[in-house]
Amino acid sequence: MKPQLCKLVYLVSAFSSLMLTTPASAQLSSVGIERREQLLSALRPACERMVFQITTHREITLALSARPIQTADVCNCSEAKISSDPRLEKFWPLSERDMKEPIESEQVKSYITGRMITSVLQCLSQEFDTSLGKAPLP
Questions:
Q1: CA distances from 34 to 30, 56, 101, 119 (A)
Q2: Residue range 113-135: mean pLDDT, rounded
Q3: Best exposed site among 12, 58, 101, 133 by fewest CB in 10 Å?
């Protein structure tokens, strides 16, 4: 497994531990918001690294010089996609007890990893289209 993907899988695993330590006394809606924000915060560095690795390749940097890709825009877009994923939304309001088994499953960890990768690539693709549209050609 590539080092960056290993780090992403580690972040997802760490996130599942964070989700299970949310105080039970908090209101259900605020717990859901907090859990979603924990996931997004845990995944943000991985998004930034992915964007950096792709956009700084020597073969593409010249084409992006007229309109460099903004990492924050890509990661904000990716976070919005992850936040609105209907399959993940069902986990946010669950009690800690009800969430424990599914969120620790390899299927959910794998799904979150896959959702992160596809969201970043979709958002990055949109940014590339805009940037390449402004790229000067001889």
A1: 6, 33, 19, 21
A2: 96
A3: 58
Categorize the per-residue pLDDT at 67 as very low, low, confident or very high, splitting at 50, 70 and 90: very high
Please give the radius of gyration of the chain, using alpha carbons only, rounded to the nearest integer: 17
Each as own residue / partner, the long-range contacts of residues 134-138 (CB below 8 Å, 24 or more positions apart, any chain) are 134/66, 134/67, 135/63, 135/64, 135/65, 135/66, 135/67, 136/66
- Encoded tokens for 35: 């859990």
CA-CA distance, 83 to 1, in Å (whole number)?
27
Regarding pTM above 0.70, the answer is yes
Residue owning tokens 């009800």 = 98
Amino acid at 35: R
Residue type, 22: T
Whole-angstrom distance, CA of residue 21 vs CA of residue 13: 13
**Which tokens go with 82?**
């992850």
* Residues in the chain, overall count: 138
